[in-house]
Amino acid sequence: MLVGWKNKTTTVKFKMRDGKLNLDDFRLICKALFRNDKGHIYQLSEEKARHMFQVFDQNSDGFIDKDEFTFCWNHWIKVIVRPVSAFLVVDVQNDFISGTLNISKCNAQQDGTEVVEPINRLLDTVPFSCVFYSLDWHPPDHVSFIDNVHMRELHPSSPVSADKAQAHDTVVFAGPPPMKQRLWPRHCVQDTWGAELHKDLKVVEHGVKVYKGTNPEVDSYSVFWDNKRLSDTSLSHQLRARHVSDIYICGIAYDVCVGATISDALAIGYRAVLIDDASRGVSVPDIQATKDAVLADHGVIVESHEVLAMVEGRDRRPELGYKLAMELKKAMKDNQ
To answer: Whole-structure pTM over 0.85, yes or no?
Structure first.
């Protein structure tokens, strides 16, 4: 049986002996799959190759037969070669760039305006299937504002009292249940200049705005749902409706809302990519912690110039292939 695939830069054919593939055959498939548009082959560990082979060897006989390969082809290889990619621009809003929560005045002293140029270039050059813009969209009495700290009772375990609390401190509100909350200067209040997207950020015609942090009683770093997971945004539904496989995420702040969003994307099961040069953050140690967490959960961190080839399926990363295989394994187990 002869099988294979073709895209703009790669044509691959291989023969299934007796209608079956063994582990060595699967390694050759991975070698052909996981490479960039210049022909560089990405390294894949023996352990991960074996893990992925076992996902598709569903009857554990040491071979991938014709029916098992059909599943592998439809749910794994096709997604890797022809991904459906969403672009999520997180919180590129005035208050985070030059307003009340200007990140250049935070520990890392990073300039939020620096994300605008690479984001605009990506919007101009990369054929994303869909584009989303998230916005912090807080009511005036929001729980995260330092000047609102006296509005709610603190729990006895709170490390800081309301009278002594300062911006960036963490307090514990009484609830119920007790709730930790990092305090921030008042920012991104609904229908104010500070909540608007930066004037130089390109907003594409088909782009979808997703609003978060609208509940006054709970903060919302992730674009998927609030910090207590009491309610979700429209993002998950819209991604499912568009059959998205890959999410490219960037914006402000790297170690807060960008980090929380890509963490949730990976937890849900998406192949998630963080765009490093299109993100800026608050704290250097926390930015590094965000990077470590993304890589540990089989996400990928790239520069903006690498994105086009990945979206077009010409640059195929083994981390994302492994992530997809593990999600398929989990789904099969759940359906048993």
So the answer is: yes
